Amino acid sequence: MPASGGLVEDLSTWAQDLPLRWLLVDEYTGDTDVAVAVCADVDGLFVAPEPLPEPERYTLVGCAPAGPLREALDAAPAPHDGPGDTEPRAWLPTVMLDPVHDPQRPAPHGCQRYDPGCSCSEELFDVEVLGHRPSAARDGLVDVEVRGRLRILPEMHWPLARPPDAQRFLLHGRENEPLGVCRSTTGIFHHRPYPTEQPVTLVGCRPEEPLLKLLRRRSFRKRHLQATVHAVDATGRAVRTYKVLSAVVTAATPSRLDPGLLDITLDGGFDEPFSDGAREIYDLWYAGRPSRRNLWAGYDRGLRHEWAGAALFHRPQDQPDRPPGRTYHLDGRFVTDIEGFYCAIGEAVNGPGGYFGWNLDAFDDCLRGGWGARRPFRLVWHHAEVARRNLVPGYDRPAYDLRSWHPAFTLDDLLGMFAEAGVTVEPR
User: Fold this and answer.
1) Membrane-crossing residues (predicted)?
2) CA nearest to 366, candidates 383, 380, 345
3) Could you read off the pLDDT of 153-211 as tens digits, one per residue?
């Protein structure tokens, strides 16, 4: 089967001596997709996940707390007078700080207004309330000490080194519940070194004409490459992974794998690469779709998420749903987290390596049809007690968003979604 609808003539013949496993496609500079290169490996596509930032201490200065923040302070019997109090009094999953700019002045440079808030807002997560003291800002206000982490999204904007031009900050939680207002803050806005760009190398690369043109250019500024990565299996079939490579080509040398190919180095790479452990998963799919169920069961939550993503990318296209009224069996022995549920329901409906959602919205879409099963259908959930013990109320940091906390999704929530979609579930 030609890769990606005929972008290149026959990838399977290229892989006889050295498997060329990754296809780069330019989907951005023209009206049609164009193959850029195929290569044996991509150094920088699989990397160890970034560790969470260390907790920091912040002060909400001149604060009039409300809602859960007010309740947290009211629950503490005595105010604290300085930084020595380090015992948390309450925990909040998220504290959003939305600056209120002077309406009589132009918005700060780069500010984009939303409803509510603007792009100058910042988010604290995993917040422990440590205490409060009377504020010097005004009688009746307090300075609130908290410990938490600043949510940093490099692909959107880097946190400001100086506070934004703001009259005050509105505070609210994840569900937009009011937490009060404060005059200013300390500890949040300061210089943070931007992470060093990790170079990427296309190893054992056969460039197509668009990349050859880049290599001929003398100016580095004109060697910018933007392409989507497609995974190529042993038959030459390529599937889109949605990993986008965007960087400048800095060097090209004869490949260490084959002198007839190139090793091409770029000065940066992927905003969100695969985790390093996912290489094993894509090695498995290279050889062919998994033939046994539960091969994902020994993985941690992060790799279970990667497994469901690989199942999505390799999902057979243009296959009709099975007719309504069918019965499917879910093996629930390993549903110890929500990621395990997505892996298990994918295999229940679509067999080993099958896909039926990898986050809540995607699962809801799958229930509506077009992903293997038409409603109504019946699901026999074996060993449902495992999910009952592990999918419990509270807050959760899901594998796809480790830098934030979300309300946990419970077994009852899942059963409610099935019932709403007209699916009969029989827990066993």
Assistant:
1) none
2) 345
3) 655 567 777 888 888 999 999 888 999 999 999 999 998 887 777 899 999 999 999 99
